[in-house]
Design brief:
Layout (H helix, E strand, L loop, with lengths): L24 E6 L5 E2 L14 E5 L6 H5 L31 E3 L1 H7 L3 E6 L9 H14 L4 E5 L3 H13 L2 E7 L4 H8 L5 E4 L3 H14 L3 E3 L5 H6 L2 H10 L7 E5 L4 H15 L9 E7 L4 H8 L24 H11 L2 E5 L1 H15 L5 H15 L8 E6 L24 H6 L4
Helix pairs in contact: 2-12, 3-4, 4-5, 8-9, 9-11, 10-11, 12-13
Bound molecules: pyridoxal-5'-phosphate (PLP) and zinc ion.
The site of pyridoxal-5'-phosphate (PLP) has 18 residues, from helix 4 and helix 9.
């Protein structure tokens, strides 16, 4: 593979990196064998081809230092692979989204205490702004000329917006059958939205090929994936901080590649190791749509072998048939006493309306999947209703209007007169 700077698999630091380019990050460490390589645009272990992730030498970090930071993800910059002066560089400054106590939904589902972490209010209306903010920092430090991604939609929106603000050329690749609002939401920020005739896994393969051929391209979820993935940790940090520096008992998280779920778990473990929260057990649950549920299928079969599938679901943002981090999702959910569950497209639609009608939150199909799985987990007794539960809403419903547009609408069309209103019988 060609790289942004140099072939960087030997353990020596990348040439040309400025001091502190990746903050307190020490190296990239293999998740399988622990082998460490120098920080740079690498993503596969040179020893065993396992995935690389960022390893740190953390300094002491206090709650007070974090609380004194900005109300965005950079309040946790000491725990991310970003330089200390990150706030000086234009980015979309995502994060610090609301954590809402969902009393109505809790009552409806029979849960004692439920919170919704609502990431639909990020700059491009999904949690992807978090990962992209970290990837942009890495791309900048590695002197990338092009900022790019294969995407199921939300990532492309976030890359295109962040690149526009940073003044770096963006090229984003999507499956051509993607929802129209997600296409427009990218094209408004970039001249280079490329629709590929194929599913996400085809788009991803193409991106890997381009990353191998072209110099100077930072593909956020390919060759700078280790840095990108760290952005999802901020969801976990925020949940803990917003709960008053403690961890929830149970958390339900959607799964596409599985990166978000594994990084929220990493965040919780880091907070415990740093003494920022009390050590306690917590259960992690993964949510998929039945039409693309390779991880849920493996979970239910009690196997580690995840069989790739061809996606067929309205939850297009979760439609990754061959999830890179699926195996780690299985491990985390099993070890923590959680589970991975899936629901039908009809249940996804129902759950979108349920969340809207109970909590005033309009979620996209990914959130419908997560809330619907939460409901199914309660009904099947897999979730303990007496424990405090957090459910993550990762994206906004305006991006997937078609999912519910034939289920909801005007109750009546009337003439603009009081008599017509009375005659309609609405009251
Ligand atoms: C709205 C939304 N939620 C959840 C996910 C799942 O993310 P991951 O690939 O980290 O599992 C995605 C991925 O694109 C998404 O767009
Ligand atoms: Zn390895």
């Amino acid at each position: 593979m060609s790289t942004l700077l140099d072939e960087n698999t030997t353990g020596t630091p990348s040439k040309g990196l400025r001091e502190g380019a990746f903050g307190n990050a020490r190296a990239l460490a293999c998740r399988e064998c622990g082998h460490e390589v120098a920080l740079g645009p690498s993503y596969a272990c040179p020893e065993c081809f396992g995935p690389l992730e960022v390893a740190y030498d953390f300094p002491t970090v206090t709650r007070e230092e974090i609380a004194a930071g900005p109300r965005n993800i950079w309040r946790y910059k000491a725990l991310l692979p970003v330089p200390d002066d990150i706030e000086q560089s234009p980015n979309t400054e995502p994060g610090f989204t609301r954590l809402l106590e969902a009393k109505n939904l809790a009552r409806e589902l029979g849960l004692e205490k439920l919170w919704v972490k609502d990431d639909s209010t990020n700059p491009t209306n999904s949690f992807k702004d978090r990962v992209v903010a970290c990837a942009l920092s890495a791309a900048r430090e590695l002197d990338a000329k092009v900022f790019a991604c294969p995407s199921t939609g939300n990532l492309a929106n976030a890359v295109a917006a962040a690149g526009a603000r940073a003044g770096i050329k963006t090229v984003v690749f999507i499956p051509s059958n993607l929802e129209k609002p997600k296409q427009v939401n990218s094209a408004v920020f970039t001249d280079h939205l490329v629709a590929v005739d194929g599913n996400y896994d085809d788009v991803n393969k193409l991106a890997s090929e381009i990353a191998g051929e072209e110099e100077g391209w930072a593909f956020v979820n390919v060759n700078v994936r280790p840095f990108y993935a760290e952005g999802s940790k901020t969801l976990g940090y925020e949940i803990a901080e917003q709960l008053g520096w403690r961890l929830p008992d149970q958390i339900v998280i959607p799964v596409a590649s599985g990166s978000q779920l594994t990084k929220v778990d990493k965040a919780f473990k880091e907070l415990i190791a740093l003494g920022l929260v009390e050590d306690k057990p917590y259960k992690v649950f993964g949510a998929q749509a039945t039409g693309c549920s390779p991880v849920s299928v493996a979970y239910k079969a009690g196997t580690d072998a995840i069989r790739p599938v061809k996606p067929d679901t309205i939850a297009k943002s979760l439609a990754i048939g061959n999830p890179a981090d699926g195996i780690y999702v299985l491990d985390i959910c099993r070890r923590s006493g959680g589970a991975v569950e899936d629901i039908t497209d009809d249940e996804v639609r129902e759950a979108i309306v349920l969340l809207a009608r109970t909590e005033g939150i309009f979620t996209e199909t990914a959130g419908g999947t997560t809330v619907g799985v939460l409901k199914k987990l309660v009904e099947s007794g897999q979730l303990d209703t007496s424990l405090e539960t957090v459910v993550i809403n990762t994206g906004h419903g305006l991006k997937t209007l078609d999912a519910v547009s034939d289920r909801v609408g005007a109750v009546a069309t009337i003439a603009p007169s009081y008599d017509a209103f009375v005659a309609s019988g609405i009251l």
